[in-house]
Specification:
By secondary structure, the protein is of the alpha/beta class. The protein is built from six helices and six strands. A six-stranded parallel β-sheet has the order 1-6-5-2-3-4, with helices on both faces. Strand 5 (147-153), helix 5 (154-166) and strand 6 (170-176) form a beta-alpha-beta unit.
């Protein structure tokens, strides 16, 4: 009896190890695949960035849970302002989460952009950007854009651009400044699994935006 128990445990351990190796391999594969695709599509200097009529600014919260200014927010606003004032973009779609009445990423980002001198007429708000996939696909399906600049930090852009490719969207990315390494450690760890989920969404689940609604075509 003890012998059988030992054999059983050995088999279970082998299965556990095998499954763990497969999962780790899939996570690594997903990250390498997404990172490699975006290498030549991300710009960090204005002078090197091609002009596009529209930019998609990916939302994030204005403040951290401790009430401090969120550096991801701050640097994305600065990057967008810089592109607009240099003439690289003419219009900005601000896409983010608005799932709670007390939490509104697009409105907070619009306030910050206007405070930086960008006219309200050059800003369109997308309140249904619940996830990166939603923001990217809605930019095409709702706002009629399939050739635009996505603005966020580099790690986020890599995933956004890969999603864009899957939906036949011709997008490039402009990388906002990264916060210090200690500040962004948890976010970078989460991104590893977000990329894995993105691959599952795109190729296994065929995930679509949570909400589309009526078209709001932006003509420039």
């Amino acid at each position: 009896m003890k012998f059988l128990i030992i054999i059983k445990n050995l088999i279970l351990n082998k299965w556990t190890i095998s499954i763990s190796i497969v999962l780790i391999g899939f996570v690594l594969f997903s990250n390498i695949l997404i990172a490699n695709y975006a290498t030549e599509k991300i710009f960090s200097k204005e002078q090197d960035t091609p002009e596009k009529p529209v930019a998609l600014l990916l939302g994030t919260s204005r403040y951290t849970v401790r009430g401090n200014t969120n550096l991801y927010f701050k640097y994305r606003i600065e990057a967008t302002t810089s592109l607009y004032k240099s003439g690289k973009i003419k219009h900005i779609i601000v896409s983010g989460d608005n799932s709670l009445s007390s939490y509104n990423e697009p409105r907070e980002m619009r306030k910050a952009l206007i405070a930086n001198g960008i006219p309200d007429s050059s800003i369109t708000l997308d309140f249904a950007g619940f996830r990166t996939l939603d923001s990217v696909v809605r930019c095409k399906e709702v706002f009629g854009q399939d050739n635009f600049i996505i603005i966020s930090q580099r790690f986020h852009l890599e995933r956004a651009l890969y999603i864009a490719k899957k939906f036949n969207i011709h997008a490039i990315g402009f990388a906002a400044q990264d916060p210090p390494e200690k500040y962004s450690f948890k976010t970078n760890v989460r991104e590893y699994f977000a990329r894995t989920k993105a691959i599952i969404d795109l190729y296994i689940l065929n995930t679509q935006p949570k909400f589309l609604g009526e078209k709001e075509i932006i003509n420039l």
